[in-house]
Design goal:
Length: about 400
Amino acid sequence: MRKDYLAFFVSLFLSRLADQILLFIVPLVVFQSTNSASLAGLAFFVESLPRFLAFPVCGALCDKYSPIKILHMSQVYRALLCVLAMALYGIFGGISWVVALSALCGVLTTQGIMAREVLMPYIFQHYSYTKTLSYSQIADQTGLVLGPLAAALMLEMWPWHWVVVWIAGLFLLADLSMLAWQRFSQITLDVFEQHQDIWMQPLKIALGHIHNLVELKKIITLAVGVNLIVGVTLATSAAMVIGHHSAGKDDYAALQAAGAVTTIVILFLLARIVLPLRFLGGGGYLMIATGAFISALSPNLPGYVLGFLLIVGFDKMFNVYMRTIRQQVIPPQDFGKTVGVITLLNNVSQPLAGLLVALLASPLGTQNVILFLAVLASLIGAFAMWWFAKACDPILTSFPKINQEIKK
């Protein structure tokens, strides 16, 4: 592998590893401190909402300024915030600092995600976008594999606040890898004239593309359904494994790692096997919905594990479909701002799912909340396929780039 590719993937891996460790410990610390699934769901809502709300602004910034500089800022500032938050924890105490830290780091994670999204077509110009997404997400998911395992091991050795300090070190290592990538890379970024405004004008342009391109409306609708299921799964997994099924935190870590391994296997197959985009989207959505029903209805831990693995594994398969479509149809000069708005619309259902868990878990039970959202996501998927079927078919066939992607 080329040195610049290796350095880019190492940076992606380390950044994801640090972010995943932080995401792992927040609901775990809250649940272990309060023994409340509702408060764990509320913590997930608080930590996840800011990262999604930041997508439109971060996307516009990546169109206006160098995405390389933005990526450096994302990693360095996350390291500094980890140190600052733990200093405040040492002075004042309380678990609210780790929740606030996760929320702020989530915004900077969004900044890094958008910068990498804009950079990838330039870095991997000699590969199809679908294959590029598959390989880059393998590096991303490897961080997901090791994140829970590393978090569980670190929590055995140190209190959680010292683990956060180690997370800061990982973010700094990720930035050093990016500096190495810059040294080896020879890419030249296209520069497009942009408006001075990073708020209303980019938002207006992005909404115009979403309104005019039926493909974007379809993937947004489907992604809302997917992220309802992903959101409720992330918000309740600790409570379901540790509380409902009476397992330990090591079992919880092993479940998270198994989900990431499943995802890596699926992504590796997608990089090697040519599948039609419609199969990636429709098949991924169907398997995610099936996993949600299995998780909700299973009376034992093995059944829940099966449902969980279907959800987290095929979520990335659907993600490859969605990102391939939008890369093909969005104009390059408006890519960052449009993807930022799309990602916000796609993912707003994730914190909503966490909020619903916080409101409904106590009166209805966690499993019933998962079942309710599984039914709702299935209805959204059925509606999207029916509503957009006739509108999308002739348009998809009119885009040579998409047809070429399907044939590759």
